[in-house]
Amino acid sequence: MRREQAELVLAELLELAPSGVEEVEVSADVVEYAVYGAPGELPDLPDVRAAAGGGLVEVSTREIADDWSERWRSFHRPLVLGDRLVVRPPWEPVSDAAVDVVIDPGQAFGTGAHATTRLCLELMLEGSGSRGSCVDVGCGSGVLAIVAAKLGWSPVLALDYDPAAVEATGENAQVNRVDLDIRRFDVRAEQVPDADLVVANVLAGPLVTWAGFQRRFAPELILSGLLSTEADHVAAAYAQRGLHERARRTRGEWAALALAG
Questions:
Q1: What's the CA gap between 108 and 103, in Å, rounded?
Q2: pLDDT of residue 1
Q3: What are the per-10-residue average pLDDT scores of the chain (261 residues)?
Q4: SS3 254
Q5: Which residues contact 122 (CB under 8 A, 6 or more apart)?
Q6: Is 79 helix (H, G, I), strand (E, B) or coil?
Q7: Where are the domains of the chain?
Q8: Phi and psi for 84 in degrees, rounded to 5?
Q9: Within 10 Å of residue 46's Cβ, how many Cβ atoms?
Q10: For position 97, what pLDDT does the model report?
C-alpha cells in the first residue's frame, strides 16, 4: 500500500487481526504489513482486501512455525543510546542506563527501535537541558512521552488518534511508573495544547497540515516520521510560522527535525 494510506489500513487490520501486525519496510513509497495469527484465527483474504480498500495492492499468506510467538520476540530488540537511555521489551533484563524504559510492543507498536522514534529520542537527549511541559503527538506505545517524563519534563501529555495507542500508552506508563495525561486526539483537526516542548512522530502530510492551522506553537518542536526527501518541505512550512531549524538528524531514509521559535 502507499505510505500515505498506511495508518488507515493499519487501523482496519487491527480489527481483523488483534493478535499482531508488524510493519515491514519495503521502500520509501510502499509499506507492507505482516499479520500474525494461529490457524483459523485470521480472516479470509477477500475480507482483508475489502477492509483495506484501494490502499492494499497485494495480499499473500504463508504458514509459519508453531513457535511464531517466540520468534516474534526476536524482532524486538532493545534500543540502546549509549549509557544514557535503553528502551527494551519486558522480556529483556533491566539495563544500567541512566534512563531504563520498558515498552511492551503490544498489538501494533514497536519498542522504540524504529528509526523515526530513535531520531526523536536522540534529539530529546541533545536538548537545551531546560525542562517544562511536554506534549507527545502521535504517541503510539508511549515511548517518547515516557522518556520525557523520566527525563524530568512535567506535566507530560500523550495524544493519539488510535484508541489502541491510547490504551497501550496507559499500560506502558503504569509499568514505567510515570504520570501521563493521555487523550485521543486528531492532529489534522485539533489545536495541540500549549507546552514548552512538543514532539510529533507522525507523517509529513499531517505535520504540514498542522503547520497551517495551529494558532500558537511551542518554543521547541521535534518532528519525525519524515522521509529525508520530505524534511526540507516540512522545515519550510514551519519556517513560514517563525519556527526555524535548530538541528536535523537522519538515519537511512528517515529524518527528524528540531525547531525553535
A1: 12
A2: 45
A3: 59 60 60 65 57 53 61 74 92 93 72 84 84 94 96 96 90 96 92 96 92 95 94 97 96 94 87
A4: strand
A5: 81, 249, 256
A6: strand
A7: 3-71, 76-260
A8: -90, -35
A9: 9
A10: 94
Helix (H, G, I), strand (E, B) or coil at 165: helix
**Burial (Cβ within 10 Å: 0-12, 13-18, ≥19) of residue 139:** buried
Identity of the amino acid at 158: A
> Locate cell 527525563: which residue?
151
**Three-state secondary structure of 204-248:** HHHHHHHHHHCCCCCCEEEEEEEEHHHHHHHHHHHHCCCCEEEEE
Among residues 185, 183, 257, the alpha carbon closest in space to that of 220 is found at 257
The Cα–Cα gap between 129 and 131 comes to 6
Does the pTM surpass 0.85? The reply is: no
d(CA 69, CA 73): 7
For residues 233 and 222, give the distance between their C-alpha atoms in angstroms, rounded to a whole number. 15
Identity (one letter) of the amino acid at 150?
Answer: K
Decide yes or no: CATH 3.40.50.150 for domain 76-260: yes
Q: How far apart are CA 197 and CA 130, in angstroms?
A: 10
Measured CA to CA, the distance from residue 164 to residue 184 in angstroms comes to 10
CB 198 within 8 A of CB 129: no
Q: Is 20 helix (H, G, I), strand (E, B) or coil?
A: coil
106 and 168 in contact (C-beta within 8 Å)? yes
What are the angstrom distances between the C-alpha of 37 and each of 61, 71, 72, 76?
11, 13, 11, 18
Q: What is the pLDDT of residue 185?
A: 92
For 251, phi and psi rounded to 5 degrees? -150, 110
Cell (9 digits) for 166:
491510547
Residue 147 and residue 86: Cα distance in Å, rounded? 10
